Amino acid sequence: MLRQLFDATSSAFTYLLVDPVTREAALIDPVREQLERDVSLVRELGLTLRYSLETHVHADHVTSAAAIRERTGAKLVAGAMGASCADLHLQGGESLALGAFSIRALATPGHTDDSLSYLCADHVFTGDALLVRTCGRTDFQNGDPGALFDSITQVLFALDEETVVCPAHDYVGFTTSTIGEEKRWNSRAAGRTRDEFITLMRGLQLPEPKLIHEAVPLNRACGQP
């Protein structure tokens, strides 16, 4: 079972993965302002929350990962270069068991240097590495447009084309996509060479995220003040 949850302020998605037999569950990218919603949903559905997974250290909202851990006992999971306060740090290729399912970490740096995507069955949770028809920016937190192009084209686009793409954000009303769609229609990556992608990303000149100076330090501490 999969639930896609939304925070309107940050346009951020949180995902709840559930093994329907064991009732074990995992949350991906929980948001501080939605802590009570998420804890209540886990309780109402009678779930045992095993993991709270972060795709990367976010710059546009504060995670509730530490609070989720305190309230539910879930293990906090991040990438090898992610927040040091995580209980588990996964390398690309490593997996977690969730009931009968396996959650496999994919190293997808570029948006940030610690970015992970998570593959579970026929869904991939891409954080900001790959969004619907676009991708995350690369101009802070050790972002690297060349690394992001490699992550998108060599790691994510190598997945089965029917794999459902579940991004960390959407700003225009999309919810999910597929790898096949993004290979054909992604406005930044599809049909571009690596050099063209790097030039494009370096020329975006986007405004700084409003919460970056609050969110990044807090998220490096798993959301703890």
Helical coverage, percent range? 10-25%
Q: Which superfamily, in CATH terms, is the homologous superfamily?
A: Ribonuclease Z/Hydroxyacylglutathione hydrolase-like
Structural class: alpha/beta
Count all strands and give the number.
12
Number of contiguous helices? 6
Q: And the CATH topology?
A: Metallo-beta-lactamase, Chain A
CATH architecture: 4-Layer Sandwich
User: In the residues, how many domains can be counted?
Assistant: 1
Secondary-structure element order, N to C: EEEHEHEEEEEEHEEHHH
Quick check: average pLDDT?
Answer: 97
Major sheet: arrangement of strands: 1-2-3-4-5-6
Radius of gyration, Cα only, in angstroms?
A: 16 Å
How far from one another are the termini? 33 Å
Give the CATH level 1 class: Alpha Beta
pLDDT below 50 for ≥5 consecutive residues: which ranges?
none
Q: What composes the largest sheet?
A: 6 strands, mixed
Percent of residues in beta strands: 25-35%
Shape: globular
Descriptive notes:
It is a single chain. With 225 residues, the protein is an alpha/beta fold. It has one domain (2-205): Ribonuclease Z/Hydroxyacylglutathione hydrolase-like (Metallo-beta-lactamase, Chain A). Helices cover 24% and strands 26% of the residues. It has helices spanning 35-44, 65-72, 145-156, 179-185, 194-202, 212-220, and strands at 2-7, 12-18, 24-28, 48-53, 75-79, 88-90, 95-98, 101-107, 116-120, 123-127, 164-167, 177-178. The protein has a six-stranded mixed beta sheet, covered by helices on one side. A six-stranded mixed beta sheet has the order 7-8-9-10-11-12. The protein is globular, with a radius of gyration of 16 Å. The mean pLDDT is 97.
